[in-house]
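Entry 14. Ran structure prediction on the chain below.
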Amino acid sequence: MFLEKSEEFTRISLKIPKELLADFSEHAKSQGYQRRDKAIIDLIQKEISKN
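Output, structure tokens:
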């Protein structure tokens, strides 16, 4: 399952500690991601595909 331009999206709201989000952002950048949301979506897709 990969993102398509025609896919519909929904907005979610999460309470995440600022320090954790900053660490994730740095990790995402080190993995070559330009956008944090794309990194989060890819991470969710990887978790789903494990099952």
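The chain has a mean pLDDT of 88. Will compare against last week's run tomorrow.
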